[in-house]
Structure formats: C-alpha cells, structure tokens
Amino acid sequence: MSDWTLIIYCGIITYLTRFLMIAILKKEMFNDKIRDVLSYVPSAIFPAIIFPAIFLDNFGSFQLDDNPKILAAAIAMVIGILSKNILATIFSGLASYWFLIFVV
After folding, report:
1. Residue 62: beta bridge partners?
2. Are residues 79 and 66 in contact, defined by beta-carbon separation less than 8 angstroms?
3. Is this model's pTM higher than 0.90 or not?
4. What are phi and psi of 62, to 5 degrees?
5. Residues 6+ apart with CB under 8 A from 47
6. Of 102, 77, 81, nearest to 93 (Cα)?
7. What is the DSSP string of 25-59?
8. What are the tens digits of pLDDT across the range 44-58?
9. How far is CA 95 from CA 27, 58, 88, in A?
10. Which of 20, 56, 76, 95 has the fewest Cβ atoms within 10 Å of its own Cβ atom?
C-alpha cells in the first residue's frame, strides 16, 4: 500500500466517522442539561491547543526566557477583551508577534 493510498483511506475514515455522528445525532436527542455541559467544551479545548504553542519550544520544554509569543499573546488578549472583535485580536497578536521577532 502506498503512502498516498493510506492517507486517502485515513481521510475517508475520519470524514465518515465525523459526518455520521453529525448526521445521526439530532438536536432533539439532547436535553437542556447536556446542551449546557457541551457548551463549555470549546472553552475547555481552546487553552489545551494554545498553551503548548505559546509556552513550549520545539523540544517540549518550557521557554519562558526571551519568548516573544508570551508578550504577543498578552497583547492579543488585551485587544480581545477591549474590542470584543476576533479579527482585531488575531491581527494584533500576529502583528505584535512579528514586530517582536523581526524588529526588536
């Protein structure tokens, strides 16, 4: 089996498992308590995705000294809180990170 065939098979299986769960489960199957609990899932998953990208280096150890990602994340967080605009938050985080890398 070639690498491309394996990649295509894995993509099809991943797509079908996710699509079937969306197609089979109906919104009427969940009561209000389950919906309330599931509404917190994105808020719980987001820090788990962002934390390693900001605080860990390529080898998996904490990089707290001379880490421009921490300052850029703090700037983006302040802009996000003040503006309540996701695009402003993303662009301010990217601009401040690039400024800290290339200019400072």
Report:
1. 56
2. no
3. no
4. -65, 135
5. none
6. 77
7. --GGGS-HHHHHHHTTHHHHHHHHHHHHHHHB-TT
8. 888 888 899 899 888
9. 40, 22, 10
10. 20
